[in-house]
């Protein structure tokens, strides 16, 4: 018993010196004439026997806990939740774009290959990027040009602007994202100007992707030079609720095979799964169904969204975990 008391007194002294006096483990070892390994073991025992308890308090008005829950509930590598000034569509786009740009800048170390798609969400990220010298970074399109070439959401322009912000070289897909026929696609993907960027895109370390919808106000539907109205309607009839890089999926996140697949120049779902880290950028309650589906189908590794969408996703996940009430028939 006496030996045990002496051990606990030593643990207490070591823990006080380390946690309260801010000594390093090496300094604690010298003070008490112990080995550094012994100090490390005593500190671990202090935690194990609850002589030391550490409480981490999140900062006021932070989304850190929400991000942690999202990552745990949906098996993500990370989640970033942007706080909103107001509920306007532009406020959501700007907030999510700034959050995604910050995440990208924090996680780039230099030498990575960064792929990106197109659209409003990716545009908001590029607009929020700060200029920094990362000349060894490669920027590549994941899908050919979509929409009018002069549009600021066009993938070619976005890749060029991102590369410019990094002082890097863009690797552009010199082809439309959607062509008129499978024959045209087959011819184009053998051209080195298309095949080489696609090979690079497939080996990307990070992919920055928007999550599209088939809602009337979406960029994909609004544009009259991507798919025709009958083609959009056929996607809806096939139960498509969203897309990433023009790869369409249903409400459960399952890839929907469509005749349009054979006309798309870009990474397939299987190729996207080889990308090291796919960062999905999307916000607004109108995108909730598509975001939920992308999470269910494991299309992304990191989600960047806004606080309203995050709250809705977590509420739904919690509701699904609750036991279902038995009906009178089942009870009988």
Question: What does this 3D model show about the protein?
Answer:
This protein has 332 residues and is α/β, with parallel strands linked by helices. It folds into two domains: 2-48, Arc Repressor Mutant, subunit A, CATH 1.10.10; 64-319, Rossmann fold (3-Layer(aba) Sandwich). The protein is 46% helix and 12% strand. The chain has 15 helices and ten strands. The protein has helices at 2-20, 25-32, 36-48, 64-74, 89-107, 120-128, 155-166, 182-188, 192-202, 219-222, 229-237, 269-272, 288-296, 307-321, 328-331; strands at residues 78-82, 113-116, 138-141, 169-171, 206-210, 212-213, 242-244, 247-249, 277-281, 302-306. The strands form two sheets. The chain has a seven-stranded parallel sheet with strand order 1-10-9-5-2-3-4, with helices on both faces. The radius of gyration is 25 Å and the shape is elongated. The protein starts with a helix and ends with a helix. The mean pLDDT is 90.
